[in-house]
Description:
The protein is of the alpha/beta class. The protein has two domains: 9-87 and 203-259, 3-Layer(aba) Sandwich (D-Maltodextrin-Binding Protein, domain 2); 89-192, D-Maltodextrin-Binding Protein, domain 2 (3-Layer(aba) Sandwich), CATH 3.40.190.100. 38% of the residues lie in helices and 19% in strands. It has eleven helices and ten strands. It has helices spanning 17-32, 44-52, 69-72, 112-115, 130-141, 156-168, 183-186, 211-214, 219-227, 231-243, 249-259; strands spanning 9-14, 37-42, 58-64, 79-81, 89-94, 121-123, 150-152, 175-179, 190-192, 204-210. A five-stranded mixed beta sheet has the order 2-1-3-10-4. Strand 1 (9-14), helix 1 (17-32) and strand 2 form a beta-alpha-beta unit. The termini are close together.
Amino acid sequence: xxxxxxxxxxxxxxxxxxxxxxxxxxxxxxxxxxxxxxxxxxxxxxxxxxxxxxxxxxxxxxxxxxxxxxxxxxxxxxxxxxxxxxxxxxxxxxxxxxxxxxxxxxxxxxxxxxxxxxxxxxxxxxxxxxxxxxxxxxxxxxxxxxxxxxxxxxxxxxxxxxxxxxxxxxxxxxxxxxxxxxxxxxxxxxxxxxxxxxxxxxxxxxxxxxxxxxxxxxxxxxxxxxxxxxxxxxxxxxxxxxxxxxxxxxxxxxxxxxxxxxxx
Length: 264
């Protein structure tokens, strides 16, 4: 642990569990280096607007270039994007009991025998998320709207409840999803192919630091951050400890850091 008290760092994370997971690792690193950390949560739009206004020192994390690039575009010159800590990507998935021979890719959803069986409303998370923007566009671009499909954004809580209920009832439905997120392995969801490439591909998830703060972050924290590699599996593991095993984000992050030999 660092013994010298450093100044307060304001850490912002999008109000979704996997972002809390990554932010908890950052918070531990800053705390260990002697920083007092103030945490702010909000939607995608709120968090990036707060950083643009100079009210957030470190934002965890920006998915670049596809999912969150539009948010930091207008203030990119005032921040430093650090090395990526994991490589997220968006997918459309179906429950594992939906046969791959029936639904292998997005276009299969339009087949008459499939469209009549599927739940045609796709429920997602908040509208500012990349997966929500991409999904709304896909409904039109793939002509799914003409087959009766629509996309409906919601909260993380409503999204999780809906997916859990659908799987428990054996429902045929599409899950607008992403990695890393605990539901992938927890419920055994199966991605389907998306040939048009509208889901944004693989992003780099990076902390975004206000340039005015860079020199105030302790050398100890900067050194640990340079070597920190969460990976999709790491974020998903922490997220699972939070959502399945009931740990707080900080306790989950601390356990993961200990288990992977990265604790201070």
